[in-house]
Amino acid sequence: MSDPLIDSLTAAVQARPDDLPLRLHLAELLVAAGRGAEAIGHAAQVLAREPGNATAQQLMGRALGTTPAATPAPPAEKPAEQPVAPPSAEPQPSAEPPAAPSPAAVDWSAMEQQFGDVVPPRFTHTGEPDPVRGHQDRVFDVESSTITLADVGGMADVKKRLEVSFLGPLRNPKLRSLFGKSLRGGLLLYGPPGCGKTFLARAVAGEMGAAFISLSITDVLNMWVGSSEKNLHDLFESARGHAPCVLFLDEIDALGHKRSQLQSSMRTVVNQLLTELDGVEGGNDGVFVLAATNAPWDVDSALRRPGRLDRTVLVLPPDRPARAAILEFHLRDRPVAGVDLDQVAAATEHYSGADLAHLCETAAEYAMRDSIASGEIRMIGQADMMAAAREVRPSTDAWFATARNVAMFANESGEYDDLATYLKKRKVR
């Protein structure tokens, strides 16, 4: 049942999230009310700001069941009532309680149930599942993005380029009309995997207040002749019908590979993509095409001509402040104590956003492993983070080794000048 006092304090904490005494008072009431799962989140928030807060540590232990509460819970009296039951002949031995576990033992099954609602679900699904999606179902999901460029850490050069290319003309219609700037165009995002190209595309849609449609090669290709081309046309028609719309083409190197290296069936798909980008059958005003690839050198040159994907932006691994922000994001709902984010960020140069997420997962595994071995919950500490940084290596090194050859020997038109400049600073050998 709902407690009016707890509800009022919850609303107050939401209004003043940095009021730690208020948050601790709420956690105390939640533990007393038997709502330990909710108390854990509030105690973790306090420990993230004040790792040495003794009150928060005690509340965390009580909520997790590793520290005895000040007042014993009523259910603890029930075992003493069992001898009062009337004796029976022979079925009773099976009803006798097992030997009591040692004080250091932890009931991990019960703890798992207690933790069940602490971490929100990672994925949500709307609608009925469709096991044959990609064969007959041609309904494209039109989303409304809630994130903006302010949610993107770092990437100052990328944001500036997006402002000039897309966002500035959209916000200034009179200036756009004066300079004859059309609300159509395409931008190619390229860089090592895991550096946030998809997240950036969603942020652009949220910044514009535009619809967002994302697709990959599996949403287009079909075994029947002509079906893949029709799927592409339906996709662009859906984007035109929801203008202003950001149309995100992921892994464009797979969908728009160089036609000289493709079979005839795939060449027609690339031709259809060129037709849709030109807007021959339907105007593309209000349709902003963003494409992403890890291998821009494999994209057909016709796709990068003026009026199509004619602007290119290099999306690099996050810089030091952005790495600290990414680490804080992935640790926000975990029990953390005494972690120096700036020091960890300094030790993770060249790491992608995906690498940093994996680093946090690895550090959590270290703390969880020790907790299972000792029977006592241990917070994720600085030693865990640094050990994980030594184990998890940056995944971008292999990509930059390939990109270096392209920047040095295949940059006649200067389209990879920004990549060459970065490689000089990085001193890749």
Structural features:
six-stranded mixed beta sheet, Helicase, Ruva Protein, domain 3, Serine Threonine Protein Phosphatase 5, Tetratricopeptide repeat, Rossmann fold, 18 helices, single chain, 429 residues, globular, alpha/beta
What does this structure look like?
- With 429 residues, this protein is of the alpha/beta class.
- The chain has 4 domains: 67 residues, Serine Threonine Protein Phosphatase 5, Tetratricopeptide repeat; 172 residues, Rossmann fold; 72 residues, Helicase, Ruva Protein, domain 3, CATH 1.10.8; 31 residues, no CATH class.
- The chain is built from 18 helices and 6 strands.
- Strands 1-3-4-5-2-6 form a 6-stranded mixed beta sheet.
- The chain starts with a helix and ends with a helix.
- About 11% of the residues have low confidence.
